[in-house]
Every structure is written in structure tokens, then in C-alpha cells.
């Protein structure tokens, strides 16, 4: 067992995600606008922590006025009939593929079981949501201590809100809701508007990347807004061999590209010297096969020089490749990029 400094935080290892989760985005990510609205009880740990995008941590020796500080949602020991529950608004309406109900660091205080219900609502009012019609999309399922529980969803409908039930009480470190946003591009497609085809809130998804030694995974490129700091972006290690770094991204919907933006915010001594974009319209295949094919895709944007801490906008340099479903973003030879935007029009159906 690896040792650590006494009193230092211990972070939970990431989940070994199945294909249905890898091909999804976390609809409960607060960066997309998700929010914990209410909990029947969060005496020991604020329900909002359950949606934190960072891995759960355990800090030895840290206590607050109510007891041991825990990184997640934790209710007190229930001494009456019933169970505890929480209301969560998803960041965007979406079809849910499944969940990671993570009880990391909750050992003698995890819930023995969980179930999840869903509804569609335009309101975040707790009383209105309590009166709404709810559909069970995850039946009562046994949980264990200090574990990632990867559970598939029993519904193929699209939802906006969840009610998370724990039986009877206890703590959940993190809740990830894996799915795909729906309807976010429909109105823009009908109006022919320019939209960010790879924005996470529009269903864009990082398929693969060769390295992410610093900062976040390549999926950070697709988050809303500009980066918060140098850790809020995709950054690779210093390359000590020939070649370049890359990531493959799936568009939220097939479309044509009019403008590309590469934002190196906060990356100063470590921004890439150049970048390029390859692209293709892909039908069929797996993430692995698509990644392999990406080496041979056509050039959408030839190599372009980059500068530190700046937004780079490219229009006239973009090749007319027609309708696309995937891109390969290349950086030369390595470095960090905060955000990548692919502005274009959704293919009319």
C-alpha cells in the first residue's frame, strides 16, 4: 500500500468506466449548470458536494461543528421510519445511460441501497417538484462501502430532474449521471444559427487523447466559458520524442464548420507552438477504431501558429469538407489549451 503524509487528503481512484459511460457526458456536472436543490437531511455533509466534478477526498483529522468532515452528501443517523432523499437538477435535459453512485471513503456510513427517480420540469421550486409525477429509472439497488457503483438506467426518455433516494440514511461521495443532452441544438438547427458543435452542453464528447499529464483530460476543452486557471484545460507533458499530441472529439450533432476558436488562456510558458484540425464524417465503428482512423482524416484547418494566453480565431483558413461528425485536434509538439470551439451549422434532418 502506498504511503502518504499524515493528515494529507487521500483522493478516490477514478472509476473503470464501461463503454456506455465513456460515450456519454456527466449531465450532473455543475459546470453545465447542474445543481443540488434540496436534501431531506444533510446534517453531516452538504448535498452540493455530491456533484463536485473533482474526485472525492478524505482528510484525516478534519472535523467541523457537526462531526467528521466528509466529502459528499451525508445525512444523520435516522431514528424514525422512512428514508432520506435529495433533488438534483441536471445541467441540461438528457437521455440517461447510467450512473456512478460513488461511496468512496464512506465505510461504516454508506447507504445500504439507492434508487433514483426522474421527472421533466421547468421549475426548480422544491414544493412544485415534490408534487410532480416521478418515474423510477433506477430500482432500489444494493450499495457497498468505499466503491464506485456503475449502474445502467432503466429508461430511454429524456429528463431534467432527479430524486435520489438512499435507504435509510448515510453518505454518497459523488453522483455521476452519464448520458447525452437532447434538444439543445434543435432550435438552432431550424433557424440555421451558428452553434458550438463540440460544446459539452450541446453533446460534444472527447473520444480519446494521447496524454493528459497536467491539467484535466481533453474533455475540459469542451466546458462552458473560458478557463478558470491553468489547471482548467488540457495540458500534455513535455514531449521528449518526435511527433505531436492530439485528441479526438465527437460533435454533438453532424454539422458544417464556419469558425474555429483555440483559447490558450493562462497557458504562457507551456502553450503549443502550433495546432491543426483534421475531420471526417464517420458512420459506425467504436471509439478505438475511430481513433485509429483519425490519423488519416482530411485536413480541416492546416497548421496555425499559436500565442500564449490568447483566443485564436480561424475562418478563411478552414477547408470546405462538408458535414462532419468527428475532429482530431493536433497540437505541436505539446502543451496546454484551455478551450476549443467549433462554430458551425447543424445538418438539417
From TrEMBL:
Pfam families: Allantoicase. SUPFAM superfamilies: Galactose-binding domain-like. Its EC number is 3.5.3.4. Pathway: Nitrogen metabolism; (S)-allantoin degradation; (S)-ureidoglycolate from allantoate (aminidohydrolase route): step 1/1. Gene3D superfamilies: Galactose-binding domain-like. InterPro entries: Allantoicase (IPR005164), Allantoicase_dom (IPR015908), Galactose-bd-like_sf (IPR008979). It is an enzyme of class 3 (hydrolase). Residues 33-181, 203-346 form the Allantoicase domain. NCBIfam families: allantoicase. Belongs to the allantoicase family. This is Probable allantoicase. It comes from Thauera sinica.
Amino acid at each position: 500500500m502506498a504511503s502518504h503524509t499524515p493528515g494529507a487528503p487521500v483522493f478516490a481512484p477514478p472509476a473503470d468506466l464501461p463503454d456506455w459511460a465513456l460515450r456519454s457526458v456527466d449531465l450532473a456536472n455543475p459546470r453545465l449548470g447542474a445543481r443540488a436543490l434540496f436534501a431531506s437531511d444533510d446534517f453531516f455533509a452538504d448535498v452540493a458536494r455530491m456533484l463536485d466534478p473533482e474526485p472525492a477526498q478524505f482528510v484525516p483529522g478534519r472535523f467541523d461543528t457537526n462531526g467528521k468532515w466528509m466529502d459528499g452528501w451525508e445525512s444523520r443517523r435516522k431514528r424514525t421510519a422512512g428514508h432520506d432523499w435529495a433533488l438534483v437538477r441536471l445541467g441540461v435535459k438528457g437521455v440517461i445511460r447510467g450512473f456512478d453512485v460513488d461511496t468512496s471513503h464512506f465505510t461504516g456510513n454508506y447507504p445500504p441501497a439507492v434508487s433514483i427517480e426522474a421527472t421533466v420540469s421547468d421549475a426548480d421550486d422544491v414544493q412544485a417538484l415534490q408534487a410532480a409525477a416521478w418515474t423510477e429509472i433506477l430500482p432500489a439497488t444494493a450499495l457497498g462501502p468505499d466503491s464506485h457503483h456503475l449502474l445502467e438506467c432503466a429508461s430511454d426518455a429524456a429528463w431534467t430532474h432527479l430524486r435520489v433516494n438512499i435507504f435509510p440514511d448515510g453518505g454518497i461521495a459523488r453522483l455521476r449521471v452519464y448520458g447525452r443532452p437532447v434538444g439543445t441544438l434543435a432550435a438552432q438547427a431550424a433557424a440555421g444559427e451558428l452553434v458550438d458543435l463540440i460544446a459539452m452542453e450541446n453533446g460534444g464528447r472527447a473520444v480519446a487523447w494521447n496524454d493528459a499529464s497536467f491539467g484535466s483530460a481533453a474533455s475540459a476543452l469542451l466546458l462552458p466559458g473560458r478557463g478558470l486557471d491553468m489547471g482548467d484545460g488540457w495540458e500534455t507533458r513535455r514531449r521528449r520524442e518526435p511527433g505531436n499530441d492530439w485528441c479526438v472529439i465527437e460533435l454533438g450533432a453532424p454539422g458544417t464548420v464556419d469558425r474555429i476558436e483555440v483559447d490558450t488562456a493562462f497557458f504562457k510558458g507551456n502553450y503549443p507552438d502550433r495546432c491543426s484540425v483534421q475531420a471526417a464524417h464517420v458512420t459506425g465503428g467504436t471509439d478505438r477504431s475511430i481513433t485509429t482512423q483519425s490519423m488519416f482524416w482530411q485536413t480541416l484547418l492546416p497548421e496555425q501558429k499559436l500565442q500564449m494566453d490568447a483566443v485564436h480565431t480561424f475562418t478563411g483558413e478552414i477547408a470546405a469538407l462538408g458535414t462532419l461528425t468527428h475532429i482530431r485536434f493536433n497540437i505541436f509538439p505539446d502543451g496546454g489549451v484551455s478551450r476549443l470551439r467549433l462554430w458551425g451549422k447543424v445538418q438539417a434532418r
